[in-house]
User: Fold these one by one.
Assistant:
Number 1:
Amino acid sequence: MRAALALAWLLAAATCGCGSDDDATDAGGPPPDALPRDWLEVGTGYDRFVPYTEPATGELIAGPQGGFHIWTSLRARNPATTMSPLVEITYERVRDGAVVSYPFRVRVSFDRVPGTDLQEIYGLRAEALSPEDVLDEDVIVRARVETRDGAFAIAEQRVHVIREVAPPPGFDGGSGP
């Protein structure tokens, strides 16, 4: 009897007037946990944030373990929400919408930019499935950052992928494809 009563309470609680996640979107607004659109920016750079300039090009880098990637950096506003967020990066080929990278997910903290409300992280790299999938192609570098309290931001950058011009000074990450 107690088990049946407990189950009834659980069902009642689960079905009470709790709105769906789509309520805000149906009303024309962003999802309830979405951060402002300008909260996150995708850049490049292995040792600092470097904003892309249009038209954006990204070098395909040969990593030391045989994979290929595009150096990715992120800049976020609002330092209070960048403590150990979950960062996801993917590459999507523009011509056919195919995801052309392995899953990249890491929980990592951003570094504060002194004298600003910005924080940055750099040296991130999703690995391309193969160099042929991205070389001389336009890809969308997509970043999703989710804070520990569930708020998230998504930023994208369209990049034309070229061969590595030269490895960074002092970097022993291999040569280009």
Note: Residues 35-163 form a domain with the Immunoglobulin-like fold (CATH 2.60.40.2550).
Number 2:
Amino acid sequence: MPKLWHFFAVIMPKAQNLIKTEHLTISTTPPIVGFLTRLVATGLYGKNHAEAAERLLSRAIEELIANDFFSKIPSPSADLSLAKNKKV
């Protein structure tokens, strides 16, 4: 009788994010939710709408960074320091 070998995937816990996370709430339209649902169904964009939206947002920001977009606009911290130095 031939030996049957079975391989089972070892499920490893997701690595803890070393960067502090913040909670963000967005409102969107039903068509956008539909697109997020379709992305989740592919298995490549997370397990729910929130994960899919976060992955899309992260990719968009990575693209902006690669295109040096943020060097062309003032940073929010620079705006805050200007406001603090401004005398009323």
Note: The mean pLDDT is 82.
Number 3:
Amino acid sequence: MTAKRGYSPRIGASNTVFLSVRLPQGAAQLITTYASLTGQSRNQLVIGLLEVGLVAYLKAENAFLEAISSLNSRVP
């Protein structure tokens, strides 16, 4: 699932970040199918998946850092 932009985005024009993603063919087909069934664009769907993954990662990281902190506070 890759596409070439026919234009070059202006750097600093907004808070938008452009990210090119190359997915395996199977994953790209699943995203395309799900997007067409739900009426979302593939971009919207991928953004949602990235956001959910980022939230899960940050929660796990916070739990890990809290565990390390609690272990450090026990060591004399």
Note: The helical segments are 25-38, 42-74.
